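## tool: complex_structure
## caller: assistant
## args:
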Amino acid sequence: MFSVTGLNGASSNGSIKVKDAGLTGMITLRGDLKSPVIAKVIKIVTGTNIPDQRQCVSTSKGATAWMSPDELLVMVDYESVDATIAKMEKSLLGVHSLIVNVSDARAVFELTGGSIRDVISKGSPADMSSKILPVGEVRRTRIAQLAVAFWFTSDTTARLVCFRSVAGYVMDWLENASEKGSEVGFH
Amino acid sequence: MLNLKCPNCEITADETDLHCDGQAHIERFGTGASDDDLETYLFMRHNPKGVHFERWRHVFGCGKWFNVARCTVTLEVFGTYSAQSLVPPKSLINKIKKKRPEWEGFVK
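## result:
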């Protein structure tokens, strides 16, 4: 099977670099996050613990992001999603939970640069100060009228996830907001 | 513009990240209810000039519901609390009473 991302490798190079992060395995897991069974499953598939409220934790195996009080986003290699889901479903048999492959329903952006906070601030109501949104914390909010989630992986790199159907729009938006000469210099 | 703290994910979110769904703590009447009760449940809402209890949803964020106590005149937010409450928490009611001594109290 031949798979492409919603962005098909798009990139832009303005005040920040915006890049298609490529095929990413993403699994939505809903359930009781306090359940030790779910904690065990997460440990097995990504090597991480259940993240604290709004945190994104990662290992070399994968990453887990806290999305809501009963929802996690599990990120693994794109190729291993089906096997991971099978493993999770087997371990969670009889445990009230929901596991869905959302890899092809989302688009993932890789943002690089010193002014990511300024660029996102142009269209999002989220408080982008590093005090409120430190590295490793997930913020679900909107950019323009679209639901997005993003988190900083370091001071100058971030990941942004949106629905695949609006990937082109978000790409255009980010490209426009990071046009050279439009730097804000606030954050 | 309102900034409300979602008690589910503890994010202080802008009004545009949220969706308001009207009065909180409405008593529901279903099959077998009297016409009067059903009418009250479906149509009759408070429209106070002052303290109001509302349901909000963190629609662009964690997607969860919560309740808000705020003033419809000044937009002052007294507090937010879990949607899984039949009445506002006592501490919140006391806080509002202190700030608005003329307030008649919580009415269902």
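## assistant note: Chain A has two domains: 11-22+105-177, 25-103. Helices of chain A lie at 36-46, 81-91, 116-121, 167-177. Handing back to user.
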